[in-house]
């Protein structure tokens, strides 16, 4: 009798799992958006527009595998600027955006899958610059460049600071070298990667002021089934070493 009950329970759970997985319509598709944020997501040809196989990077490879394992269809587009992608994801059901830094302020705005990767927030100075700051408060006396609607910029603004926001983070490399800003608030290793692309090395790390985690952020109307299946796939990928392998391949 006990075996019959256990078998019935097992069959019931299998049926529930099957029906839960079948909740999504057959033609359901997630619209994924990303930007040039190397080495996490970037266009293969370094341009500001790319689709599907024209996009690579740590987060891109991880996200692709997540959707494959979860059995969910998607389209992937890299565009510019981040500010526009951020607002589209806020407004459009079943839109997803990566790599998005998770913050307490953003938490209620999206549904989240992650973390995909970890970063640090830094203040960088031009090569040979001897600026010294002990915290953000002491840094506020300087002209700080940042990236519009990026989590780093939003954090500075939440602290009562007024960074000079650029539509492309690469612009801050040139501003720094020209003396138009004193410090560049950015993400490590992204900032160093972007600077290298511009032919600039030797930037000085003046302050590390936060560590952050990168996620896949979804419009709040995205079905919970999508979030649960993708999170399960990511957890499996982390446990079987796939996430570490991809990260090491790029870094």
TrEMBL record:
Keywords, ordered alphabetically: Signal
Family annotation (InterPro entries): Solute-binding_3/MltF_N (IPR001638)
Keyword Phosphoprotein: no
Record-linked Pfam families: SBP_bac_3
Signal peptide: 1-22
Keyword Signal: yes
All residue ranges annotated as the Solute-binding protein family 3/N-terminal domain in the record: 29-251
Protein name: ABC transporter substrate-binding protein
Organismal lineage: Bacteria, Pseudomonadati, Pseudomonadota, Gammaproteobacteria, Pseudomonadales
């Amino acid at each position: 009798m006990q075996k019959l009950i256990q078998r019935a329970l097992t069959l019931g759970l299998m049926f529930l799992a099957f029906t839960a997985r079948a909740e999504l319509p057959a033609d359901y598709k997630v619209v994924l958006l990303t930007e040039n944020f190397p080495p996490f997501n970037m266009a293969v040809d370094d341009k500001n527009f790319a689709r599907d196989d024209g996009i690579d990077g740590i987060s891109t490879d991880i996200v692709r595998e997540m959707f494959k394992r979860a059995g969910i269809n998607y389209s992937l587009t890299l565009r510019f600027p981040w500010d526009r992608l951020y607002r589209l994801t806020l407004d459009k059901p079943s839109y997803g955006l990566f790599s998005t830094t998770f913050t307490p302020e953003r938490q209620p705005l999206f549904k989240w899958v992650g973390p995909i990767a970890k970063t640090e927030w830094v203040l960088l100075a031009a090569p040979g610059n001897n600026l010294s700051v002990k915290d953000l408060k002491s840094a506020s006396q300087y002209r700080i460049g940042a990236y519009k609607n990026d989590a780093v910029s939003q954090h500075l603004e939440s602290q009562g600071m007024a960074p000079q926001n650029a539509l492309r983070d690469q612009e801050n490399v040139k501003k720094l070298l020209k003396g138009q800003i004193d410090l560049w608030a950015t993400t490590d290793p992204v900032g160093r990667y972007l600077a290298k692309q511009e032919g600039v090395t030797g930037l000085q790390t003046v302050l590390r002021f936060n560590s952050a985690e990168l996620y896949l952020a979804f419009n709040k109307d995205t079905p919970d089934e999508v979030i649960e299946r993708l999170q399960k796939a990511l957890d499996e990928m982390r446990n079987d070493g796939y996430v570490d392998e991809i990260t090491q391949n790029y870094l």
